[in-house]
Amino acid sequence: MRMHKLKVLLSLSKPFRRNDSSFFLPNHYCRQFSAQPSYADYLQEQVLVEGRAKSRAAILNRPSALNALTPSMAGRLSRLYESWEENSDIGFVMMKSNGRAFCSGADVVTLYELINEGKVEECKKFFQTLYKFVYLLGTYLKPNVAILDGVTMGSGAGISLPGMFRVVTNRTIYSNPEAQIGFHPDAGASYYLSRLPGYLGEYLALTGEKLNGVEMIACGLATHYSHNERLPWIEERLGKLITDDRLVIENSIAQYGDIVYPDTRSVLHKFEKIDKCFCQDTVEEIIEALEREAAESHDQWCNTALNKIKEGSPLSLKVALKSIREGRFQPLDQCLVREYRISVNWVSKRMSDDFREGVRARLVDKDFAPKWDPTRLEKVTTDMVDRFFIPLDELEPELNLATAIREPSM
């Protein structure tokens, strides 16, 4: 079946022809050689490429911005991965980063600025490109490895966790803090969070709390753990492989891996309380359950979780909970289509301006005093939440994924 899918993809790729009229451009469109770096060079430098004997590596390269994803980065990743999948000389692919972060998520400050400038269509285009790449990764025909060494947040998880092998380290810090900036867990988050043990996904989405690399291994978000100092050995080993055999690749990573267990302070030892509190039907009921648990057990974890939830946008919290609950019963493609609808509604400010306000308060003005609308959970009606999930009208195209030629995962 996978070989058949690859043949279909190859048949759809357009061959290069010298006599193609699009190849001959007027002189003023032709690239001139210059000592000055071009804008295209600058965009390419945001995602570097490393060639290996039988593999390729994409390197996220905005270290000063914690490798936050720009529209151009999402587009370049899609083009690279599509071309690598079609190239029979490439057996497997890899993604890594430069700097202390793998990827801190989407560059929401850029999205904030685009919204302020009235360029909402550019925001939509970014989400389309990003979500299509997430789907490509989740249905990729070749083995793929992501090395999550450092901060991995939001969409940074989206461009790695749907893949086959996810390597984490002692420096990995993962979170989905979208509700705290007036948005929702996206880029496939409603798919992978909803499949975590018990109600851990709801806990992570509503509180924005962090997991380290060991905890990601323990709950299934990652496949391999290695100390940061051994990453060069893993990369050297992978770089020498002449194979597309996933078992060989997996064993090569595991050769330098560690067997690890969460320490006694880990939130994963709170599974019973997480399930007890976060299994509730509504955000209000979750808060009430946490308050009861705090009064009965005097566990500081309950108060910390309560404070984190109360920092989030009331509307975002309810949208996030509904999205994850729906994600439990949907494949990746349906989750992405739904997330796109929600994202379009946020950036279009049709129901609320909380996304722009959250980014302003936390990342632009940094006063950490967002003015949410509605201001309290009890003011967020069921109708307000449901409107984020309604299919887009005929003037607003839905997210179009290549489900006809790529099998949706479940």
UniProtKB/TrEMBL annotation:
Organism: Solanum pinnatisectum
Record keywords: Hydrolase
Swiss-Prot/TrEMBL catalytic activity: 3-hydroxy-2-methylpropanoyl-CoA + H2O = 3-hydroxy-2-methylpropanoate + CoA + H(+)
Function, in words: Hydrolyzes 3-hydroxyisobutyryl-CoA (HIBYL-CoA), a saline catabolite. Has high activity toward isobutyryl-CoA. Could be an isobutyryl-CoA dehydrogenase that functions in valine catabolism.
Domain of life, source organism: Eukaryota
Name the UniProt record assigns to this protein: 3-hydroxyisobutyryl-CoA hydrolase
Pathway(s) of this molecule: Amino-acid degradation; L-valine degradation
Any one GO biological process: L-valine catabolic process
Enoyl-CoA hydratase/isomerase domain boundaries: 56-389
Enzyme Commission identifier(s): 3.1.2.4
Family per record: Belongs to the enoyl-CoA hydratase/isomerase family.
Keyword set includes Hydrolase: yes
Origin organism lineage: Eukaryota, Viridiplantae, Streptophyta, Embryophyta, Tracheophyta
NCBIfam families linked: PRK05617.1 (NF004127)
